[in-house]
Amino acid sequence: MLVSKIKGYIELSSYNREEIKDYMGVSTNTISAWCTGKSRPSLEDAFKLSRLLGVTVEDLYEYKEKNLEEK
Q1: Residue 63 phi, psi dihedral angles, 5° rounding
Q2: Where does the pLDDT of residue 48 fall: very low under 50, low under 70, confident under 90, or very high at 90 and above?
Q3: Domain membership flag for residue 69
Q4: 49: buried, middle or exposed (CB in 10 Å: 19+, 13-18, 0-12)?
Q5: Which of 7, 9, 14, 70 is 20 to 30 Å from 63 at the Cα level?
Q6: Are 17 and 24 in contact (CB under 8 A)?
Q7: What pLDDT does 68 receive?
Q8: Per residue in 1-28, pLDDT tens?
Q9: Is residue 28 assigned to a domain?
Q10: What is the span of the domain harbouring residue 35?
Q11: 53 falls within a domain
Q12: What is the CATH number of the domain that holds 16?
């Protein structure tokens, strides 16, 4: 399972959501959905966002494996 860390990196950056929205060419609702985990950026947008924020794509997400006992 992918856990988004986008919100934290946006909050740590020198950019506000309006600036990020304009750079990315997406709506503020899209940025909010990325921050809450309701949706994920496309792979292209994830790379673009990571470059803007000065982090790697891997920094933007945490991967957590499910236990085999979980269904």
Answers
A1: -100, 125
A2: very high
A3: no
A4: buried
A5: 14
A6: no
A7: 66
A8: 788 999 999 999 999 999 999 999 999 9
A9: yes
A10: 2-63
A11: yes
A12: 1.10.260.40
Q: Quick one: tokens of 46?
A: 């994830």
Structural domain count, the chain? 1
- Look at residue 71 and tell me if it is in a domain: no
Residue with tokens 């990020």: 20
Q: Which letter, b or e, does each residue of 13-48 get, where b requires 16 or more Cβ atoms within 10 Å of its Cβ?
A: eeeeeeebbeebebeeebbebbbeeeeebeeeebeb
Q: Whole-model pTM?
A: 0.83
As a whole number, the mean pLDDT across the chain is 91
Phi, psi of 61 (to 5 degrees): -135, 150
